[in-house]
Amino acid sequence: MEACSTSTGIKGDAWIGSITAVSELALRGFEAVMQVKQNHGLYPKKVIEDALKESPGGLNIVLKGTFHENTILAIGYRYNSKKTLFFAVTSNAGSTEPGQPYEMKYTDP
Predict the structure, then answer these.
(1) β-pair type (60-67, 70-78)
(2) Which residues lie below 8 Å from residue 17, measured CB to CB, with a gap of 6+?
(3) What are the angstrom distances between the C-alpha of 28 and each of 42, 64, 90, 103?
(4) pLDDT computed for residue 61 by the predictor
(5) How many beta carbons lie within 10 A of that of residue 89, not counting itself?
(6) Burial 38-72 (b: 16+ CB within 10 A, else e)
(7) Largest CB tally within 10 Å, which of 23, 42, 48, 70?
(8) How far apart are CA 29 and CA 52, in angstroms?
(9) Position 81 pLDDT exceeds 80
(10) Distance separating alpha carbons of residues 93 and 80, to the nearest angstrom
(11) H-helix or E-strand containing 51?
(12) 35-59: per-residue pLDDT in tens?
């Protein structure tokens, strides 16, 4: 990110997504949204899993914490009745307020 001086944010997949990665980007003045899978150290994955265990798809939970003086959000999104997606986000990367739902657009019939 430091080589891309005109960029202000990054979206990262589960390969690099972690609380540490998000915090390091925040320390350097960048905003980040990263999916968390394997690198879940420091991430409240069990808390989120337990909170959404019996929930239907479409629900989410947002937890707020501080790491290295940066406010980091841990977001759990219940994708369907069996799958939960996990994200680590800097506090100014976007909003968690309800808004317009995403509508999938297919390129073929």
Answers:
(1) antiparallel
(2) 34, 35, 36, 37, 39, 87, 88
(3) 20, 20, 12, 34
(4) 94
(5) 24
(6) ebbebbbbeebeebbeeeeeeebbeeeeebeebeb
(7) 48
(8) 32
(9) yes
(10) 25
(11) helix 45-52
(12) 999 888 889 999 999 999 999 988 8
pLDDT tens for each residue of 12-35:
777 778 899 899 889 888 899 999
Look at the chain and count its residues: 109
DSSP H or E stretch at residue 47:
helix 45-52
Largest CA distance in the chain: 50
Tokens found for residue 37: 């899978």
* AA identity, residue 108: D
Instruction: Specify whether the CB–CB gap between 46 and 21 falls below 8 A.
Output: no
Which helix (H) or strand (E) element contains residue 76? strand 70-78
Phi, psi at 76, each rounded to 5°: -115, 130
Q: Residue written as tokens 């690099």? A: 16
Name 31's bridge partners: 9
Return all residues near 21 (Cβ < 8 A) that are at least 6 apart: 12, 32, 34, 39, 88
Positive or negative, the CA dihedral 87, 39, 72, 70 is negative
Lookup: tokens for 38:
């394997």
What's the one-letter identity of residue 97? Answer: E
